[in-house]
Amino acid sequence: MAEPTEQRVSKPQRFIVGRPSSIPEGGHVLVTAGGHEIGVYRFGGRFYGLLNRCPHLAGPLCKGQVVTEVFSPMPGDVRGNPDRAFVTCPWHNWEFDIKTGQSYWNPKLRVRPFPVGVEGAEALTAAVERGDTERVPGPYTAETVPIEIEDEYLVVSLRAVPAIRLEPAP
Amino acid sequence: MTTALLEDMTREQFWSGSVIDCDVHAVVPSLDTLFPYQDKVWVDAARERGFRGPAGLALTYPPALATTARPEWRPADGTVPASDLSQLRRDILDPWRVDRAILNCYYAIDSLRHPDWAIVMARSVNDWIIDQWLNKDDRLVASLVIPARDPAAAAAEIDRIGGHPGFVQVLLPVRSERLYGQRVFWPLFEAIERNGLVAGLHWGGLAEHGPTPTGYASWYVEEYAEESQVFGAQLTSMIVEGLFQKFPELRVSILEGGFTWLPTWAWNLNKKWKGLRREFPWVDRLPSEIIRDHFRFSIAPADMGPPDQMKRLLGWLGTEDLLMYASDYPHLHTDDLSVLLGLMSDTMQTNVMAETARRWYRL
Ligand code: FES
Predict the structure, then answer these.
(1) Chain A residues whose beta carbon lies within 8 Å of the beta carbon of residue B286
(2) What is the pLDDT of residue A48?
(3) B171: closest CA among B162, B182, B179?
Protein backbone atom coordinates (compact mmCIF):
# COMPACT_ATOMS: atom_id res chain seq x y z
CA MET A 1 0.00 0.00 0.00
CA ALA A 2 1.38 3.32 -1.01
CA GLU A 3 2.24 5.92 1.54
CA PRO A 4 -0.30 8.79 1.52
CA THR A 5 1.29 11.70 -0.40
CA GLU A 6 1.28 15.09 1.19
CA GLN A 7 -1.26 17.38 -0.47
CA ARG A 8 -0.05 20.77 -1.67
CA VAL A 9 -1.75 23.59 0.19
CA SER A 10 -2.12 25.73 -2.93
CA LYS A 11 -0.30 26.76 -6.08
CA PRO A 12 2.60 29.00 -5.10
CA GLN A 13 1.68 32.66 -5.30
CA ARG A 14 5.03 34.01 -4.19
CA PHE A 15 8.35 33.64 -5.88
CA ILE A 16 11.86 34.13 -4.62
CA VAL A 17 13.62 35.87 -7.48
CA GLY A 18 16.98 37.00 -6.10
CA ARG A 19 18.79 39.06 -3.53
CA PRO A 20 18.35 42.79 -3.05
CA SER A 21 22.04 43.30 -3.71
CA SER A 22 21.67 41.84 -7.19
CA ILE A 23 19.76 44.94 -8.45
CA PRO A 24 21.62 48.23 -8.25
CA GLU A 25 19.74 51.44 -7.46
CA GLY A 26 17.96 52.57 -10.63
CA GLY A 27 18.37 49.16 -12.23
CA HIS A 28 16.00 46.37 -12.97
CA VAL A 29 15.87 42.71 -13.94
CA LEU A 30 13.38 40.60 -15.78
CA VAL A 31 12.20 37.41 -14.12
CA THR A 32 9.65 34.75 -14.94
CA ALA A 33 7.35 33.83 -12.12
CA GLY A 34 4.16 31.81 -12.29
CA GLY A 35 4.23 32.07 -16.08
CA HIS A 36 4.48 35.88 -16.05
CA GLU A 37 7.43 37.94 -17.21
CA ILE A 38 7.93 40.57 -14.56
CA GLY A 39 10.33 43.49 -14.43
CA VAL A 40 11.67 43.97 -10.91
CA TYR A 41 12.86 47.55 -10.41
CA ARG A 42 14.89 49.15 -7.66
CA PHE A 43 14.12 52.82 -7.29
CA GLY A 44 14.63 55.08 -4.28
CA GLY A 45 15.80 52.10 -2.24
CA ARG A 46 12.56 50.18 -2.78
CA PHE A 47 11.53 47.43 -5.14
CA TYR A 48 8.65 47.39 -7.60
CA GLY A 49 7.35 44.77 -9.98
CA LEU A 50 5.65 45.47 -13.32
CA LEU A 51 4.24 43.03 -15.84
CA ASN A 52 6.37 43.02 -18.98
CA ARG A 53 3.33 43.70 -21.13
CA CYS A 54 2.31 47.22 -22.04
CA PRO A 55 -1.40 47.94 -21.54
CA HIS A 56 -1.42 49.90 -24.81
CA LEU A 57 -0.62 47.32 -27.49
CA ALA A 58 1.23 44.71 -25.45
CA GLY A 59 4.76 45.92 -26.13
CA PRO A 60 7.62 44.51 -24.03
CA LEU A 61 7.39 47.35 -21.55
CA CYS A 62 10.26 46.36 -19.30
CA LYS A 63 12.73 46.56 -22.19
CA GLY A 64 12.22 50.34 -22.19
CA GLN A 65 14.23 53.08 -20.52
CA VAL A 66 13.64 54.21 -16.96
CA VAL A 67 13.36 58.00 -16.77
CA THR A 68 12.50 60.43 -14.01
CA GLU A 69 9.65 62.88 -14.20
CA VAL A 70 9.94 66.08 -16.22
CA PHE A 71 7.22 68.70 -15.87
CA SER A 72 6.72 72.35 -16.58
CA PRO A 73 4.25 74.96 -15.39
CA MET A 74 5.14 77.26 -18.32
CA PRO A 75 7.21 77.14 -21.50
CA GLY A 76 10.78 77.91 -20.58
CA ASP A 77 10.42 76.62 -17.02
CA VAL A 78 11.29 72.93 -17.13
CA ARG A 79 11.56 71.08 -13.86
CA GLY A 80 12.56 67.59 -12.85
CA ASN A 81 11.27 65.42 -10.04
CA PRO A 82 13.94 62.83 -9.22
CA ASP A 83 11.55 61.07 -6.84
CA ARG A 84 9.14 59.91 -9.50
CA ALA A 85 10.25 57.47 -12.17
CA PHE A 86 8.60 56.07 -15.27
CA VAL A 87 9.24 53.06 -17.40
CA THR A 88 8.91 54.12 -21.05
CA CYS A 89 7.57 51.55 -23.44
CA PRO A 90 9.96 50.79 -26.30
CA TRP A 91 7.10 50.68 -28.81
CA HIS A 92 5.36 54.05 -28.51
CA ASN A 93 7.28 55.66 -25.69
CA TRP A 94 4.36 56.04 -23.29
CA GLU A 95 5.44 56.53 -19.69
CA PHE A 96 4.23 54.33 -16.82
CA ASP A 97 4.80 55.17 -13.18
CA ILE A 98 7.22 52.66 -11.77
CA LYS A 99 5.43 52.54 -8.41
CA THR A 100 1.84 52.22 -9.53
CA GLY A 101 1.94 51.19 -13.17
CA GLN A 102 -0.24 54.21 -13.98
CA SER A 103 0.09 55.74 -17.44
CA TYR A 104 1.18 59.36 -17.39
CA TRP A 105 -1.16 60.63 -20.07
CA ASN A 106 -4.13 58.42 -19.36
CA PRO A 107 -4.46 57.75 -15.62
CA LYS A 108 -7.16 55.18 -16.30
CA LEU A 109 -4.60 52.98 -18.00
CA ARG A 110 -2.33 50.90 -15.80
CA VAL A 111 0.33 48.22 -16.22
CA ARG A 112 -0.26 45.37 -13.82
CA PRO A 113 1.98 45.96 -10.80
CA PHE A 114 3.26 43.20 -8.51
CA PRO A 115 4.40 43.74 -4.94
CA VAL A 116 8.03 42.94 -4.31
CA GLY A 117 9.09 42.31 -0.73
CA VAL A 118 12.34 41.67 1.03
CA GLU A 119 12.19 38.73 3.40
CA GLY A 120 14.60 36.80 5.61
CA ALA A 121 15.69 33.24 4.88
CA GLU A 122 14.15 31.76 7.95
CA ALA A 123 10.59 32.77 7.19
CA LEU A 124 11.08 31.88 3.54
CA THR A 125 12.26 28.37 4.28
CA ALA A 126 9.02 27.77 6.15
CA ALA A 127 7.01 29.30 3.32
CA VAL A 128 8.70 27.09 0.73
CA GLU A 129 7.98 24.06 2.87
CA ARG A 130 4.34 25.09 3.16
CA GLY A 131 4.24 25.22 -0.61
CA ASP A 132 3.00 28.78 -1.11
CA THR A 133 6.38 30.14 -2.17
CA GLU A 134 8.64 28.90 -4.92
CA ARG A 135 12.20 29.50 -5.93
CA VAL A 136 12.52 30.61 -9.54
CA PRO A 137 15.50 31.55 -11.71
CA GLY A 138 16.67 34.86 -10.39
CA PRO A 139 18.52 37.85 -11.74
CA TYR A 140 21.49 37.17 -13.95
CA THR A 141 21.17 33.43 -13.56
CA ALA A 142 19.26 30.51 -14.96
CA GLU A 143 19.63 28.71 -11.68
CA THR A 144 16.87 28.54 -9.15
CA VAL A 145 17.62 30.93 -6.31
CA PRO A 146 18.98 28.85 -3.41
CA ILE A 147 18.02 29.95 0.06
CA GLU A 148 20.89 30.39 2.41
CA ILE A 149 20.42 31.06 6.02
CA GLU A 150 21.04 34.63 7.19
CA ASP A 151 20.49 36.22 3.76
CA GLU A 152 17.57 38.35 2.59
CA TYR A 153 15.63 37.69 -0.58
CA LEU A 154 13.40 39.49 -3.04
CA VAL A 155 9.97 37.94 -3.16
CA VAL A 156 7.52 38.75 -5.94
CA SER A 157 3.90 38.18 -5.08
CA LEU A 158 1.27 37.44 -7.69
CA ARG A 159 -1.52 38.18 -5.29
CA ALA A 160 -3.68 41.18 -5.88
CA VAL A 161 -1.81 44.37 -5.26
CA PRO A 162 -2.89 46.17 -2.13
CA ALA A 163 -4.76 49.30 -3.07
CA ILE A 164 -2.22 51.89 -4.14
CA ARG A 165 -3.13 55.49 -3.92
CA LEU A 166 -2.52 56.81 -7.39
CA GLU A 167 -0.68 60.07 -7.31
CA PRO A 168 -2.39 62.81 -9.29
CA ALA A 169 -0.66 63.64 -12.51
CA PRO A 170 1.32 66.89 -12.18
CA MET B 1 -26.27 76.93 -54.10
CA THR B 2 -22.66 77.93 -53.55
CA THR B 3 -21.32 79.21 -50.26
CA ALA B 4 -22.27 82.80 -50.56
CA LEU B 5 -24.93 83.22 -53.21
CA LEU B 6 -28.57 82.78 -52.38
CA GLU B 7 -29.27 82.31 -56.10
CA ASP B 8 -32.95 81.51 -56.58
CA MET B 9 -33.74 81.16 -52.88
CA THR B 10 -34.77 83.83 -50.45
CA ARG B 11 -32.77 84.26 -47.28
CA GLU B 12 -35.75 82.89 -45.30
CA GLN B 13 -36.13 79.84 -47.50
CA PHE B 14 -32.51 79.06 -47.03
CA TRP B 15 -32.01 79.90 -43.37
CA SER B 16 -34.46 81.50 -40.99
CA GLY B 17 -32.07 81.96 -38.05
CA SER B 18 -29.33 84.49 -37.37
CA VAL B 19 -26.30 84.86 -39.60
CA ILE B 20 -22.86 86.02 -38.59
CA ASP B 21 -20.41 86.10 -41.47
CA CYS B 22 -16.96 85.72 -39.93
CA ASP B 23 -14.88 86.51 -43.01
CA VAL B 24 -15.73 89.30 -45.42
CA HIS B 25 -13.04 91.38 -47.04
CA ALA B 26 -12.30 95.02 -47.41
CA VAL B 27 -9.87 95.57 -50.24
CA VAL B 28 -7.72 98.70 -50.28
CA PRO B 29 -8.35 99.85 -53.88
CA SER B 30 -5.10 101.78 -54.17
CA LEU B 31 -2.44 103.36 -52.04
CA ASP B 32 -4.03 106.78 -52.67
CA THR B 33 -6.99 105.65 -50.54
CA LEU B 34 -4.68 105.50 -47.54
CA PHE B 35 -2.90 108.84 -48.08
CA PRO B 36 -5.41 110.78 -45.95
CA TYR B 37 -4.46 108.53 -43.04
CA GLN B 38 -0.68 108.85 -43.46
CA ASP B 39 1.81 111.51 -42.48
CA LYS B 40 2.78 113.66 -45.46
CA VAL B 41 6.39 112.50 -45.33
CA TRP B 42 5.24 108.99 -46.31
CA VAL B 43 2.86 110.25 -48.96
CA ASP B 44 5.75 112.17 -50.49
CA ALA B 45 8.06 109.16 -50.15
CA ALA B 46 5.60 107.04 -52.13
CA ARG B 47 5.29 109.68 -54.86
CA GLU B 48 9.05 110.21 -55.02
CA ARG B 49 9.66 106.53 -55.61
CA GLY B 50 6.54 105.69 -57.62
CA PHE B 51 5.67 103.18 -54.90
CA ARG B 52 2.20 101.74 -55.45
CA GLY B 53 1.77 99.71 -52.23
CA PRO B 54 2.85 96.32 -50.92
CA ALA B 55 3.76 93.95 -53.74
CA GLY B 56 2.46 90.88 -51.96
CA LEU B 57 -1.20 91.72 -52.50
CA ALA B 58 -1.28 90.81 -56.19
CA LEU B 59 0.69 87.63 -55.50
CA THR B 60 -1.70 86.43 -52.82
CA TYR B 61 -4.83 87.48 -54.71
CA PRO B 62 -4.04 87.83 -58.44
CA PRO B 63 -6.56 90.57 -59.33
CA ALA B 64 -8.19 89.01 -62.38
CA LEU B 65 -8.19 85.42 -61.16
CA ALA B 66 -11.59 83.80 -60.67
CA THR B 67 -10.82 82.83 -57.08
CA THR B 68 -10.05 86.45 -56.16
CA ALA B 69 -13.54 87.73 -56.89
CA ARG B 70 -16.70 85.94 -57.91
CA PRO B 71 -17.93 87.32 -61.28
CA GLU B 72 -21.24 88.43 -59.74
CA TRP B 73 -19.27 90.60 -57.34
CA ARG B 74 -17.07 92.38 -59.87
CA PRO B 75 -18.49 95.87 -60.40
CA ALA B 76 -19.23 96.58 -64.05
CA ASP B 77 -17.51 99.96 -63.89
CA GLY B 78 -14.17 98.34 -63.12
CA THR B 79 -14.11 99.38 -59.44
CA VAL B 80 -11.97 97.06 -57.37
CA PRO B 81 -14.22 94.36 -55.88
CA ALA B 82 -14.99 94.68 -52.15
CA SER B 83 -13.32 98.06 -51.99
CA ASP B 84 -16.21 100.05 -50.58
CA LEU B 85 -19.06 99.62 -48.16
CA SER B 86 -21.82 99.98 -50.74
CA GLN B 87 -20.66 96.84 -52.52
CA LEU B 88 -20.49 94.87 -49.29
CA ARG B 89 -23.97 96.02 -48.31
CA ARG B 90 -25.44 95.11 -51.66
CA ASP B 91 -23.75 91.71 -51.96
CA ILE B 92 -23.66 90.43 -48.38
CA LEU B 93 -24.93 92.55 -45.50
CA ASP B 94 -28.40 93.24 -46.95
CA PRO B 95 -29.29 90.03 -48.84
CA TRP B 96 -27.99 87.82 -46.04
CA ARG B 97 -29.43 90.09 -43.34
CA VAL B 98 -26.39 89.45 -41.22
CA ASP B 99 -26.41 90.24 -37.52
CA ARG B 100 -22.72 90.96 -37.78
CA ALA B 101 -19.96 90.53 -40.32
CA ILE B 102 -16.27 90.47 -39.51
CA LEU B 103 -14.27 92.57 -41.90
CA ASN B 104 -10.78 91.40 -42.80
CA CYS B 105 -8.45 93.54 -44.83
CA TYR B 106 -5.44 91.74 -46.16
CA TYR B 107 -3.09 94.35 -47.54
CA ALA B 108 0.11 92.23 -47.57
CA ILE B 109 1.85 94.65 -45.24
CA ASP B 110 4.13 91.80 -44.26
CA SER B 111 5.59 91.86 -47.78
CA LEU B 112 7.23 95.19 -46.93
CA ARG B 113 10.64 94.84 -45.36
CA HIS B 114 10.83 98.56 -44.65
CA PRO B 115 10.25 98.62 -40.89
CA ASP B 116 8.88 102.16 -40.68
CA TRP B 117 6.73 102.03 -43.77
CA ALA B 118 5.18 98.77 -42.58
CA ILE B 119 4.07 100.49 -39.39
CA VAL B 120 2.70 103.46 -41.35
CA MET B 121 0.78 101.11 -43.64
CA ALA B 122 -0.75 99.17 -40.76
CA ARG B 123 -1.82 102.31 -38.93
CA SER B 124 -3.37 103.84 -42.03
CA VAL B 125 -5.26 100.68 -42.94
CA ASN B 126 -6.68 100.48 -39.42
CA ASP B 127 -7.70 104.13 -39.44
CA TRP B 128 -9.29 103.71 -42.88
CA ILE B 129 -11.24 100.69 -41.62
CA ILE B 130 -12.60 102.70 -38.70
CA ASP B 131 -13.39 105.76 -40.79
CA GLN B 132 -14.83 104.21 -43.94
CA TRP B 133 -16.36 100.98 -42.64
CA LEU B 134 -16.85 100.61 -38.88
CA ASN B 135 -18.16 104.14 -38.38
CA LYS B 136 -20.66 103.70 -41.19
CA ASP B 137 -22.33 100.38 -40.49
CA ASP B 138 -23.17 98.94 -37.07
CA ARG B 139 -23.28 95.45 -38.44
CA LEU B 140 -19.54 95.49 -39.02
CA VAL B 141 -16.73 94.55 -36.69
CA ALA B 142 -13.21 94.09 -37.96
CA SER B 143 -9.71 92.73 -37.68
CA LEU B 144 -6.90 95.16 -37.25
CA VAL B 145 -3.71 94.70 -39.24
CA ILE B 146 -0.15 94.81 -37.93
CA PRO B 147 3.43 94.98 -39.14
CA ALA B 148 3.76 91.23 -38.60
CA ARG B 149 7.51 91.02 -39.05
CA ASP B 150 8.09 93.16 -35.98
CA PRO B 151 6.38 91.75 -32.86
CA ALA B 152 7.15 94.80 -30.72
CA ALA B 153 5.76 97.23 -33.29
CA ALA B 154 2.78 94.93 -33.80
CA ALA B 155 2.10 94.98 -30.07
CA ALA B 156 2.33 98.78 -30.07
CA GLU B 157 -0.24 99.04 -32.88
CA ILE B 158 -2.55 96.61 -31.08
CA ASP B 159 -2.33 98.74 -27.94
CA ARG B 160 -2.89 101.94 -29.95
CA ILE B 161 -6.09 100.85 -31.63
CA GLY B 162 -7.14 97.48 -30.19
CA GLY B 163 -9.39 99.11 -27.59
CA HIS B 164 -11.70 100.45 -30.32
CA PRO B 165 -14.99 98.58 -29.84
CA GLY B 166 -15.18 97.73 -33.54
CA PHE B 167 -11.99 95.67 -33.50
CA VAL B 168 -12.44 92.07 -32.39
CA GLN B 169 -9.45 90.42 -33.98
CA VAL B 170 -5.86 90.83 -35.14
CA LEU B 171 -5.17 89.56 -38.64
CA LEU B 172 -2.08 87.36 -38.84
CA PRO B 173 -1.03 86.28 -42.33
CA VAL B 174 -0.57 82.53 -42.06
CA ARG B 175 2.77 82.58 -43.84
CA SER B 176 5.23 84.26 -41.56
CA GLU B 177 8.96 84.67 -41.27
CA ARG B 178 8.96 82.31 -38.31
CA LEU B 179 6.35 80.04 -36.78
CA TYR B 180 4.00 82.03 -34.57
CA GLY B 181 4.35 79.77 -31.55
CA GLN B 182 7.96 80.84 -31.07
CA ARG B 183 8.82 82.95 -28.05
CA VAL B 184 9.89 85.92 -30.12
CA PHE B 185 6.14 86.47 -30.77
CA TRP B 186 5.13 86.51 -27.10
CA PRO B 187 4.83 90.33 -27.03
CA LEU B 188 2.39 90.13 -29.95
CA PHE B 189 0.16 87.51 -28.33
CA GLU B 190 0.42 89.20 -24.98
CA ALA B 191 -0.98 92.36 -26.58
CA ILE B 192 -3.74 90.37 -28.31
CA GLU B 193 -4.75 88.76 -25.02
CA ARG B 194 -4.43 92.02 -23.09
CA ASN B 195 -6.84 93.74 -25.49
CA GLY B 196 -9.31 90.85 -25.42
CA LEU B 197 -8.91 90.21 -29.15
CA VAL B 198 -8.84 87.05 -31.24
CA ALA B 199 -5.77 86.10 -33.29
CA GLY B 200 -7.07 85.52 -36.82
CA LEU B 201 -4.72 83.36 -38.85
CA HIS B 202 -5.60 84.16 -42.43
CA TRP B 203 -4.51 83.03 -45.87
CA GLY B 204 -1.68 85.15 -47.21
CA GLY B 205 1.71 86.35 -46.14
CA LEU B 206 5.04 85.90 -47.74
CA ALA B 207 7.19 83.09 -46.46
CA GLU B 208 10.89 83.78 -46.54
CA HIS B 209 11.42 80.24 -47.71
CA GLY B 210 8.62 79.84 -50.21
CA PRO B 211 4.88 79.43 -49.87
CA THR B 212 4.79 75.64 -49.39
CA PRO B 213 6.36 73.85 -46.47
CA THR B 214 9.30 73.05 -48.70
CA GLY B 215 9.96 75.78 -51.21
CA TYR B 216 8.38 77.50 -54.15
CA ALA B 217 5.61 75.91 -56.20
CA SER B 218 5.44 76.34 -59.95
CA TRP B 219 1.75 77.18 -60.13
CA TYR B 220 -0.69 79.29 -58.14
CA VAL B 221 -2.97 76.30 -57.71
CA GLU B 222 -0.28 74.48 -55.76
CA GLU B 223 0.19 77.40 -53.45
CA TYR B 224 -3.55 77.64 -52.96
CA ALA B 225 -3.97 73.93 -52.27
CA GLU B 226 -0.94 73.55 -50.02
CA GLU B 227 -1.87 76.41 -47.77
CA SER B 228 -3.65 74.08 -45.36
CA GLN B 229 -0.28 72.59 -44.48
CA VAL B 230 0.97 76.02 -43.49
CA PHE B 231 -2.10 76.49 -41.29
CA GLY B 232 -1.36 73.08 -39.79
CA ALA B 233 2.24 74.03 -39.11
CA GLN B 234 1.18 77.24 -37.33
CA LEU B 235 -1.43 75.42 -35.25
CA THR B 236 1.16 72.82 -34.31
CA SER B 237 3.73 75.46 -33.41
CA MET B 238 1.27 77.35 -31.23
CA ILE B 239 0.31 74.21 -29.34
CA VAL B 240 3.76 72.67 -28.99
CA GLU B 241 5.45 75.91 -27.96
CA GLY B 242 2.97 76.28 -25.11
CA LEU B 243 1.34 79.49 -26.31
CA PHE B 244 -1.90 78.50 -24.55
CA GLN B 245 -0.16 77.78 -21.26
CA LYS B 246 1.51 81.16 -21.52
CA PHE B 247 -1.67 82.96 -22.64
CA PRO B 248 -4.58 80.92 -21.33
CA GLU B 249 -7.19 83.37 -22.64
CA LEU B 250 -5.84 83.34 -26.19
CA ARG B 251 -8.33 82.51 -28.96
CA VAL B 252 -7.20 81.70 -32.50
CA SER B 253 -9.40 81.63 -35.59
CA ILE B 254 -8.33 79.76 -38.70
CA LEU B 255 -9.74 81.82 -41.56
CA GLU B 256 -9.77 80.78 -45.18
CA GLY B 257 -7.70 77.76 -44.18
CA GLY B 258 -10.29 74.99 -44.50
CA PHE B 259 -11.00 72.50 -41.75
CA THR B 260 -11.20 69.08 -43.41
CA TRP B 261 -7.55 68.50 -42.59
CA LEU B 262 -8.07 69.04 -38.90
CA PRO B 263 -9.24 65.63 -37.59
CA THR B 264 -6.32 63.66 -39.00
CA TRP B 265 -3.89 66.41 -38.10
CA ALA B 266 -5.11 66.29 -34.50
CA TRP B 267 -4.94 62.48 -34.35
CA ASN B 268 -1.33 62.70 -35.39
CA LEU B 269 -0.55 65.43 -32.87
CA ASN B 270 -2.25 63.51 -30.07
CA LYS B 271 -0.22 60.44 -30.90
CA LYS B 272 3.04 62.34 -30.97
CA TRP B 273 2.25 64.03 -27.67
CA LYS B 274 1.61 60.73 -25.92
CA GLY B 275 5.05 59.47 -26.82
CA LEU B 276 7.16 62.61 -27.00
CA ARG B 277 5.60 64.91 -24.43
CA ARG B 278 8.75 64.98 -22.31
CA GLU B 279 10.25 67.24 -24.95
CA PHE B 280 7.59 69.90 -24.35
CA PRO B 281 6.34 69.09 -20.86
CA TRP B 282 4.31 72.31 -20.51
CA VAL B 283 1.70 70.71 -22.77
CA ASP B 284 -0.11 68.66 -20.16
CA ARG B 285 -3.18 67.54 -22.06
CA LEU B 286 -4.15 66.20 -25.45
CA PRO B 287 -3.55 68.64 -28.32
CA SER B 288 -7.08 67.92 -29.56
CA GLU B 289 -8.45 69.31 -26.28
CA ILE B 290 -6.33 72.44 -26.68
CA ILE B 291 -7.69 72.84 -30.21
CA ARG B 292 -11.28 72.59 -28.99
CA ASP B 293 -10.66 75.25 -26.34
CA HIS B 294 -8.50 77.67 -28.30
CA PHE B 295 -9.32 77.38 -32.02
CA ARG B 296 -12.29 77.99 -34.29
CA PHE B 297 -12.43 77.55 -38.07
CA SER B 298 -14.24 79.39 -40.84
CA ILE B 299 -16.06 77.19 -43.35
CA ALA B 300 -14.92 78.97 -46.51
CA PRO B 301 -13.36 77.06 -48.13
CA ALA B 302 -15.10 73.89 -46.96
CA ASP B 303 -13.16 71.71 -49.43
CA MET B 304 -16.07 69.31 -49.45
CA GLY B 305 -15.91 65.68 -50.46
CA PRO B 306 -18.88 63.39 -51.07
CA PRO B 307 -21.65 64.15 -48.53
CA ASP B 308 -21.59 60.78 -46.76
CA GLN B 309 -17.86 61.05 -46.22
CA MET B 310 -18.18 64.67 -45.23
CA LYS B 311 -20.75 63.70 -42.60
CA ARG B 312 -18.31 61.24 -41.09
CA LEU B 313 -15.62 63.90 -41.09
CA LEU B 314 -17.85 66.34 -39.22
CA GLY B 315 -18.27 63.64 -36.56
CA TRP B 316 -14.51 63.31 -36.29
CA LEU B 317 -14.32 66.95 -35.23
CA GLY B 318 -15.71 65.74 -31.91
CA THR B 319 -17.60 68.96 -31.20
CA GLU B 320 -20.47 70.92 -32.69
CA ASP B 321 -18.92 74.19 -31.59
CA LEU B 322 -15.92 74.66 -33.86
CA LEU B 323 -16.99 75.89 -37.29
CA MET B 324 -18.15 79.38 -38.25
CA TYR B 325 -19.98 80.50 -41.37
CA ALA B 326 -18.04 82.72 -43.76
CA SER B 327 -18.82 83.95 -47.24
CA ASP B 328 -15.18 84.95 -47.74
CA TYR B 329 -16.57 87.80 -49.83
CA PRO B 330 -15.55 88.55 -52.57
CA HIS B 331 -13.54 85.37 -53.12
CA LEU B 332 -14.97 82.49 -55.05
CA HIS B 333 -15.70 79.18 -53.33
CA THR B 334 -17.95 76.61 -54.87
CA ASP B 335 -18.86 74.43 -51.91
CA ASP B 336 -22.61 73.93 -51.51
CA LEU B 337 -23.53 75.43 -48.17
CA SER B 338 -27.00 73.87 -48.11
CA VAL B 339 -25.48 70.40 -48.51
CA LEU B 340 -22.95 71.09 -45.78
CA LEU B 341 -25.60 72.33 -43.34
CA GLY B 342 -27.79 69.36 -44.23
CA LEU B 343 -25.16 67.07 -42.74
CA MET B 344 -25.34 68.77 -39.35
CA SER B 345 -27.66 68.56 -36.36
CA ASP B 346 -29.95 71.55 -35.74
CA THR B 347 -27.69 72.71 -32.92
CA MET B 348 -24.63 72.56 -35.08
CA GLN B 349 -26.36 74.44 -37.90
CA THR B 350 -27.29 77.24 -35.52
CA ASN B 351 -23.76 77.27 -34.14
CA VAL B 352 -22.18 77.40 -37.57
CA MET B 353 -24.47 80.10 -38.95
CA ALA B 354 -24.05 82.46 -35.98
CA GLU B 355 -23.78 81.27 -32.42
CA THR B 356 -20.23 79.92 -32.35
CA ALA B 357 -18.91 83.17 -33.78
CA ARG B 358 -21.15 85.23 -31.46
CA ARG B 359 -19.66 83.53 -28.40
CA TRP B 360 -16.12 83.38 -29.79
CA TYR B 361 -15.96 87.05 -30.73
CA ARG B 362 -18.24 88.13 -27.85
CA LEU B 363 -20.56 89.87 -30.27
S1 FES C 1 2.70 49.22 -26.81
FE2 FES C 1 3.55 50.29 -25.20
S3 FES C 1 3.22 52.35 -25.70
FE4 FES C 1 2.34 51.28 -27.31
Answers:
(1) 105
(2) 96
(3) B162
